[in-house]
Write a structure and sequence with these properties.
By secondary structure, the protein is mainly α. About 80% of the residues lie in helices and about 0% in strands. It has one domain. Helix 1 runs parallel beside helix 3.
Length: about 70
């Protein structure tokens, strides 16, 4: 039982870290460089907010769009 829960935990952690990495790459493509401060804020978001950000970033044109999203969410 404990072994299975450990595997589930590792898979959830992997998904979380992969999602952060993917979003940061997408942000770099959409708005150019991502500052360390913005990167840090993204890295502390819970998974549900990361998923929301992954959809919202499709409309981003500049870093101000990300900053506004982070402020409002």
């Amino acid at each position: 039982m404990y072994k299975l829960s450990g595997i589930v935990w590792i898979l959830k952690l992997y998904r979380y870290l992969f999602t952060i990495s993917f979003i940061l790459r997408q942000l770099t493509c959409r708005i150019g460089s991502v500052t360390p401060e913005m990167r840090s804020q993204v890295q502390t978001l819970p998974l549900a907010q990361l998923e929301s950000l992954s959809e919202a970033l499709l409309d981003f044109k500049e870093d101000g769009d990300l900053l506004r999203w982070l402020r409002e969410n």
